[in-house]
Amino acid sequence: MQGLALLTDLYELTMAAAYHDHGMFEPATFSLFIRDYPVNRRYFVSAGLEDVLHYLQDLRFAADDISYLERLRLFKPEFLAYLEKFRFGGEVFAVPEGRLFFANEPILEVTAPLIESQIVETFVINAINLQVMIATKASRCGHAAGRRALVDFSLRRTHGTDAGMKVARASYIGGFVGTSNVLAGKTYGLPVLGTMAHSYITSFGEEADAFRAFARTFPENTVLLVDTYHTIRGTVCAAGIGREMALEGKSLKGIRLDSGDIARLSRRARKILDRAGLRDTEIVASGNFDEYKIERVLSRGGVIDSFGVGTKMGVSSDAPFLDIAYKQVDYSGRPVLKLSPGKATLAGKKQVFRISGARGKLSRDIIGLRDDQLGKGEPLLQKVMSGGRIQVDPPPLAKVRTCFLEEFAKLPDRLKSVVPKRGDIYPVGLSPRLQKLQTQVIHRIKEKSCFS
């Protein structure tokens, strides 16, 4: 991906320069994983892999990148000459987008000459962190909403334009039906949906005039925002416009509620629409929704057909980051690990095996060595890059979304809960060979004189 080579932390480059200076070019494997669950999470949704693969395949240091690094006066000419010819030539094993995974399981593993596998760390973490976080948040909203459709309304309050794009993509993977983000619709082939703002209503002298004008412009897609002045009166007005449309052979597609006591107002709105003969007119709700508010409104009898979900999903407000790490697990054929308190890692190239139980429900996962054979377990990590080239065509996002929905249906309901019980954790264990390797590596480390 041209232009992103310097989108990295400085220490990636200083480490790479030291490796170069000392002739450390042997293969290294790094594993990307999430250490623990954020608040109320019991699973993660894989997303962001496609961006990582294109970044790795296209990574180049442009002439002006090299000139900038030279001006920093940190790097030797020999290292800068190396960067001029830099290409990522490694391999990647990864969990496909749309699959579920769990804490401490590798999401992907990168194997390449040490400098290559080290220097890509920052981008890999950044890309996967955001999209996994959002896809997981979106899936929780979808579970709370049941069969009701959800639309991404978050663009204006996401953390920058790139985040806005990735949120639209990741929320679609996590089960949303579309986005209000038109550029994301064009870029990713997503359905785009939207209604109107309050400014549209206030631009007309009368609310009815605004509704009528919009219905004439968009007779096949009329969704009217009814809470600008008074929600119930606005709904009565919208129902009148719906009756006018019916006389012309058209139909009022929906109304949108954006404020107030949504549960109570939606019940009253439904009665008004039904009395007007508009039983097929849908009620859309928006306004600071996330899984918690969706569940609360529906539990109080809210009559909602779909939700516009914005800010709280787009920034994952209750859990705005993941404890995600990219750690070396092998260098030059030597398994390595960390023993740092609270941040210990698992040595060795790995695979994750998924075990299904009765009726196909997810039962448990086993983290094993890459070459383990565990019988019934489905290996999740797939080889997606070799020799620096993408090995698989990325599936259409609609297929990724379907993959997620199918696997999510197999996850035990207790793990999907908006507020799960404290002890409800999906079981993840280690294979005997992987466990034995950890013991061996730790023993080797303890034999060193500097160990305390």
Keywords:
19 strands; TIM Barrel; six-stranded parallel β-sheet; 17 helices; nicotinate phosphoribosyltransferase; seven-stranded antiparallel β-sheet; 452 residues
Structure explained in plain terms:
With 452 residues, this protein is an alpha/beta fold. The chain folds into 2 domains: 10-134 and 319-446, nicotinate phosphoribosyltransferase (Alpha-Beta Barrel); 135-314, Alpha-Beta Barrel (TIM Barrel). It has 17 helices and 19 strands. Helix 13 links the parallel strand 10 (282-285) and strand 11. Helix 6 packs parallel to helix 13 (291-299), helix 7 (161-173) packs across helix 8 (182-188) and helix 10 (207-217) crosses helix 11. The longest helix is centred in the N-terminal third of the chain and has 25 residues, at 121-145. The protein is elongated and about 80 Å long. The mean pLDDT is 96.
